[in-house]
Amino acid sequence: MHAPVLVLKDSLKREQGSKVQHANIHASKAVADIIRTTLGPRSMLKMLLDASGGIVVTNDGNAILRELDLAHPAAKSMIELSRTQDEEVGDGTTSVIVLAGEMLHVAEAFIDKNYHPTVICRAYNRALEDAIAALDKIAIQIDVNDRATMLSLVKSCIGTKFTGQFGDLIADLAIDATTTVGVDLGQGVREVDIKKYIKVEKVPGGQLEDSKVLKGVMFNKDVVAPGKMKRRIVNPRIILLDCPLEYKKGENQTNAELVLLKMEEEYIQNLCAQILKFKPDLVITEKGLSDLASHYLSKAGVSAIRRLRKTDNNRVAKASGAVIVNRPDELQESDVGVGAGLFEVRKIGDEFFAFIVDCKEPKACTVLLRGASKDLLNEVERNLQDAMSVARNILKNPKLVPGGGATEMTVSAALKQKSSSIEGIEKWPYEAAAVAFEAIPRTLAQNCGVNVIRTMTALQGKHANGENAWVGIDGNSGAIVDMKERKIWDAYNVKAQTFKTAIEASCMLLRIDDIVSGIKKKQAPGAGPTPSKPKVEEEGDADNEQMLPE
C-alpha cells in the first residue's frame, strides 16, 4: 500500500536534487566561459570597471574573477577556486576554472541518466589519482642553479601574460628576486617567502627596461632633518628601533611646564646617549622622533628616519643584518647592522626614496618597477607576482612537465587506455573525465584562431599510443610542435595543484542537491514578526538569478 508513495517521494527528491545540480553546472560553466578566452599567449584581455570607478585591464584569471559580483552560490565557489590556486602556487588560475567547468559539463550527461553523484565522484577521484601518476611519469628533474633552464621555464609560464612581449625582462627580475630571498632549511628544502621579503615598488615614469632588482631595500621616506643630516653614507652602521624617541607627557602634568621641559630634555638626551654609544650612522624607528632627538642625532652626525612601516623595517633587518630593538637600553653590538654597502636618499619624480643597497648577503630585496602609466605598472606587477610564484615553485620542487596542452593530452590518453580495464558503472564517468582534460589544449587552439577540430584530431593521433608525451600546441601559431624543442614548460607543482583543485571542486559541487537560503526577507513597516522558514530554492529561482554581471 505505502510502497508506491515512497517510490514517488524518492523520485521527486531525486528530481529536485538533479535540478539543483543542473543549475550549479550551468553557473560554473558560465564562469568558465567568461575567462576561457584569456588562456594562452594569444589570449584576449578583459577591461574591468571596479566599484570605485577605476579601470583594470588584464588577462589574469584571478584578477578578473576577483572583480566579478555574481549572485549564484556555485559561481561564487568557482571564483574561490581561482583565489586558492593563486595563493597556493600563483599560476594556473585560468586553467583551473576551465578544467573544473569542463569536468562539470561532462558530468551533466550522467546526471540526466540518473547516475548517483557519489558514483561520478568516485570515478573522478580515481581518475585524479591516475592523472597524478601519469604526471609523475613524464615529469623531469632540473638543476635550479642552471639559469638558462630557469629562465626558459619562467618565460614560458608568463608568455601567456601581457608582459610576454617584453622578452626576458620580467623573468630575469623574478629569478633574481626569488634566488635572493631563498633560505635553505636543510635536507634539500628551500623556503622562499615572496609576500614578506620581496617588495615591489612601482614608480611611474621612465621606461620598463629601467626596472631592476635592488641588492637591498628602498622605501618612500626622507631623513628627518634634510639640511642637517647626511643623505649618502657608505658602509653605514644601522640601528633599527621599534620605540618612540620622544617624551610621552602624562595627562595631569600640563602645569609644571618648566620642570617638564627639563625632564623631557634629560630623558631624550639619555635615550640618544644610549644609541650613540654604538656609533651608528643611521637610526631608523617605526614610531615618532621628536625635534630634540633629531637635534642630538644630527649633532653627532647620525642620519635618522622615522615612522617606517613594520614590514619595511623587517626587510631592512633582513637585508642589512640588523636586529629590531624595542628599547634603546637593551641595545647590543650584535644588533647593529653592518651588512649594507650604501645608504642614499634619491629623488625620483616628485618624491624622495631612501635606498639601502649593495648589501653583502641580503635575505630581502625590492623590485623597482618603472613604466609609462599606473595601469601598465599594475599589470606588470601582477605578472611579476605570477613569475615569482613560478620561480618559487621550481626552487621548492624542481620538476617540470611539458606546457602547451601536451601534459593534459598525455594524461587524457593514459586515462582512456586505463578506462578499458575498469569494470562496472564507474567506467563511463572515468572515461568522461579523460575527455574533459582535453579542454585545455582545445581552448588554446580556439584562442589561436586555428581550425580546432583538425588540430585536436591531429594531436589525439600523436598521443594515441602514449609515445609522444611532449607534443602540444604552440600558443602563438597554433601549430603542433615538440615542447622540448620550443622550451615550453610548466612547473609540476602548478599542474598537480590545478588537477587536484579542479576535480575536488567539481566533486563538491556535484554532491550538492539543495540550495537553502538562510537570508531573512525584509519586512514591510508595521508588519508583525513572522517566524522565518529556510527557503528551498527551486530550479526556476536558481536559473533566474543573475549569473553574469551586466
UniProtKB/TrEMBL annotation:
<dbReference type="InterPro" id="IPR054827">
    <property type="entry name" value="thermosome_alpha"/>
</dbReference>
<comment type="similarity">
    <text>Belongs to the TCP-1 chaperonin family.</text>
</comment>
<dbReference type="GO" id="GO:0005832">
    <property type="term" value="C:chaperonin-containing T-complex"/>
</dbReference>
<feature type="region of interest" description="Disordered">
    <location>
        <begin position="520"/>
        <end position="550"/>
    </location>
</feature>
<comment type="function">
    <text>Molecular chaperone; assists the folding of proteins upon ATP hydrolysis. Known to play a role, in vitro, in the folding of actin and tubulin.</text>
</comment>
<protein>
    <recommendedName>
        <fullName>T-complex protein 1 subunit gamma</fullName>
    </recommendedName>
</protein>
<keyword id="KW-0067">ATP-binding</keyword>
<keyword id="KW-0963">Cytoplasm</keyword>
<dbReference type="GO" id="GO:0051082">
    <property type="term" value="F:unfolded protein binding"/>
</dbReference>
<dbReference type="InterPro" id="IPR027410">
    <property type="entry name" value="TCP-1-like_intermed_sf"/>
</dbReference>
<dbReference type="InterPro" id="IPR027413">
    <property type="entry name" value="GROEL-like_equatorial_sf"/>
</dbReference>
<dbReference type="InterPro" id="IPR027409">
    <property type="entry name" value="GroEL-like_apical_dom_sf"/>
</dbReference>
<dbReference type="GO" id="GO:0005524">
    <property type="term" value="F:ATP binding"/>
</dbReference>
<keyword id="KW-0547">Nucleotide-binding</keyword>
<dbReference type="InterPro" id="IPR053374">
    <property type="entry name" value="TCP-1_chaperonin"/>
</dbReference>
<dbReference type="InterPro" id="IPR012719">
    <property type="entry name" value="Chap_CCT_gamma"/>
</dbReference>
<keyword id="KW-0143">Chaperone</keyword>
<dbReference type="InterPro" id="IPR002194">
    <property type="entry name" value="Chaperonin_TCP-1_CS"/>
</dbReference>
<dbReference type="GO" id="GO:0016887">
    <property type="term" value="F:ATP hydrolysis activity"/>
</dbReference>
<dbReference type="GO" id="GO:0140662">
    <property type="term" value="F:ATP-dependent protein folding chaperone"/>
</dbReference>
<dbReference type="InterPro" id="IPR002423">
    <property type="entry name" value="Cpn60/GroEL/TCP-1"/>
</dbReference>
<dbReference type="Pfam" id="PF00118">
    <property type="entry name" value="Cpn60_TCP1"/>
</dbReference>
<dbReference type="InterPro" id="IPR017998">
    <property type="entry name" value="Chaperone_TCP-1"/>
</dbReference>
